[in-house]
Amino acid sequence: MKYPRVIVFDGVCNLCNSSVQWVLKYDKNARFSFASLQGEFGQNLLKQNALDPKTFHSFILLEGDQLYTQSTAALRVAKKMSFPFFLLYPFILVPKFIRDTIYDYIANNRYKWFGKTDSCMIPDPEVQQRFIP
């Protein structure tokens, strides 16, 4: 099955899970599907794109056949959200190395600051069809 837009996230990261909950709340047109990095879809995606699951610390946005990571992925998600969140997209004009330095700082500290769980989140029944195993 082909999914138009998939957010692939760290399923044990509290910050990542909160971000998914935020997207679910504000993605009124259900534009995004979700998959955890730890699941079959996420692991296959990492392998297909030669991304090491042990060192990879970004979420992924897969739009069609195009893969986005780090700040670019986050800003592309914001672009598809409703007002006022799409107003964040002009930050794409900030040079990528600057955006990704900030992104990496947060990503490298996310477990320390926000914690992690022992297992991936279980989606509520009303949104479960948007999650890919």
Average pLDDT confidence is 88
End-to-end gap: 12 Å
Uncertain runs are: none
Number of DSSP strand runs: 4
Secondary-structure element order, N to C? EHEHEEHH
Q: Choose one word for the global shape.
A: globular
Rg: 14 Å
Q: Considering DSSP H and I runs of 4 or more, what fraction of the residues is helical?
A: 25-40%
Q: Could you give a short account of the major beta sheet? A: 4 strands, mixed
Oligomer: single chain
Number of helices: 4
Strand fraction equals 5-15%
The helix-and-strand class reads alpha+beta
Q: In order across it, which strands form the biggest sheet?
A: 2-1-3-4
Topology of helices and strands:
Layout: E1 5-9, H1 14-26, E2 33-36, H2 40-48, E3 60-63, E4 66-69, H3 70-79, H4 96-114
Parallel strand pairs: 1-2
Antiparallel strand pairs: 1-3, 3-4
Explain this structure to me?
With 133 residues, the protein is an alpha+beta fold. It has helices at residues 14-26, 40-48, 70-79, 96-114; strands spanning 5-9, 33-36, 60-63, 66-69. A four-stranded mixed β-sheet has the order 2-1-3-4, with helices on both faces. The model has no long low-confidence stretch (mean pLDDT 88).
